Amino acid sequence: MSHLRMLPRQALYVWTVTVLASVVIYVAPAWADVRLPKIFGSHMVIQQQRPVKVWGWADPGEKVEVSFAGQSRSVVADSEGRWLVVLDPVSAGGPQSLVVAGKNRIQLEDVLVGEVWVGSGQSNMQWPVSRSMNAEKEIAEANWPKIRLFTVARKIAATPQEDCEGQWVVCTPQTIADFSAVLYFFGRKLHQELDVPVGLINSSWGGTMAEAWTSREALQTDPDFAPILERGANFDPKSPHQPAVLFNAMIHPLLNFAIRGVVWYQGESNCARAEQYQKLFPTLIQDWRKRWGLGDFPFYFVQLAPFRYRNADPRNAAELREAQRLTLRLPNTGMVVTTDIGDVNDIHPTNKQEVGRRLALWALAKTYGQDVVYSGPLYREAKIEGNKVRLFFDHVDGGLVAKGGELTHFQVAGADGEFRPAKAVIDGETVVVWSDEVPQPVGVRFGWSDDAEPNLFNAVGLPASPFRTDNFPLVTAGRR
Are 414 and 472 in contact (CB under 8 A)? Predict the structure, then answer.
């Protein structure tokens, strides 16, 4: 070291820092920690009765061992440092620990196994408990230690991301206020009825369009979506309205995580292109199902509530509701009708409790096999009988009911396509519609305006969905 004493103090400092830096650069990769994505954490819920995928990152070639619920699996990280193990399905219960060990050790505590649901969409899904009906009471009573909450941080990305931001928390009065109200009330009802842990993942963003939640690859499969991709190139780069950017940042990081299903509340931002939504919304559902790799998992959604979209054609929202109704053609889907629990002066009606309950009815009946009425009347077919039209419905459970007097919000048209107000009466399990101004009817519409609050229900109090029987051109036709 004698030659070092001959170096000036400054030169000696530079030499020392250089050597130390080279050592750090050399050894750092060998000591990189095993990491898990943010969707894994203490207090999480793992989906029961499905294979449990656990994944993350480590040094290339590093051996990683995962232990949970009496199972252990090991794997070697690939050349890019990624690893994934698959554990056998586990029954509901807990709490347990989940341990991941490589060169370091991660131990997650208070892990439950139960039912996991994702809630997504725009502002009516994002809408928090703190701004819902009876908020103070709901927050004070939100002491559900076996309900766990995860909110995906709102971010956009031009390419699919491997991770997101967020953390699991136990449902308490201290954690519930800012959580999605619809998703919470849905999950609470499931927990009360099923008596198993429930994990709720909120991935929503107000004002966003369906195409932002759909992968670019799915949008590229249909020429009708080409204008969406072209328009996306003209946004502000930080806009959440660009195609695929929310799928990339807020859905893609979740795709390995096992879930039971999805609940969805969105569509207001797509009203002006309602006819396109007839293809866009099913494309989103099929895209998510394909990428999650869990088959046709349940996908239950909320039909738009009545609201006067002031400067828009009032038929736009009606056509969006029709697009939502037609999406029921996809297997394992369900739709909540909200014509009786909206607010025509507020696009964010506060009765999120009933929205969540009605979503839960679909899940309890169709996913969990309970014998409950889960839908209001849904239009099935129409038969012309002279100057009248007879309408047939599914889900007339207990019979059809006109709340508050005569049936409202029916229209009928002849071959000219001009719809006129119509009279309607309940006849058994059907509705008969006519207008003295239309001697030869060809089509009927029901609840066909943005702010319609019709009064046709079934006997258990669930409202009938708006619908049309005709195939006249829509006002949103051709808008791309």
Answer: no
CA distance 119 to 184: 9
Confidence of residue 234 (pLDDT cuts 50, 70, 90): confident
CA gap 324, 342 in Å, rounded: 17
Pairing of strands 388-394, 378-385: antiparallel
The one-letter amino acid code at 125 reads M
The overall longest dimension of the chain from CA atoms, in Å, is 113
Q: Which of 412, 457, 447 is nearest to 433 (CA)?
A: 412
Distance, CA of 39 to CA of 201 (rounded, Å): 9
Is 254 in contact with 118 (CB distance < 8 Å)? yes
HEC readout, 83-121: EEEEECCCCCEEEEEEEEECCCEEEEEEEEEEEEEEEEE
Contact 378, 465 (CB under 8 A): yes
**Distance of alpha carbon 288 from its chain centroid, rounded?**
10
C-beta atoms surrounding 418 within 10 Å: 12
Question: What are the structure tokens assigned to 135, written together?
Answer: 């908020």
Residue 265: which residues within 8 A CB-CB, separation 6 or more?
Answer: 119, 121, 122, 124, 125, 182, 204, 301, 302, 355
Q: Residue 1 above 90 pLDDT?
A: no
Instruction: Encode pLDDT of 401-423 as tens digits.
Output: 999 999 999 999 999 999 999 99
In the chain, the N- to C-terminal Cα span, in Å, equals 75
Quote the pLDDT of residue 220. 97
| Mean pLDDT for the chain overall | 94
Name the phi and psi angles at 345, rounded to 5. Answer: -105, 0
Q: Which of 152, 197, 251 is nearest to 48 (CA)?
A: 197
Count of Cβ atoms closer than 10 Å to residue 314 Cβ = 15
Rounded CA separation 461/37 (Å):
44
Measured at the CA of 319, the angle between CA 318 and CA 322, to 5 degrees, comes to 90
Task: Report the distance separating Cα 26 and Cα 450, nearest Å.
Answer: 65
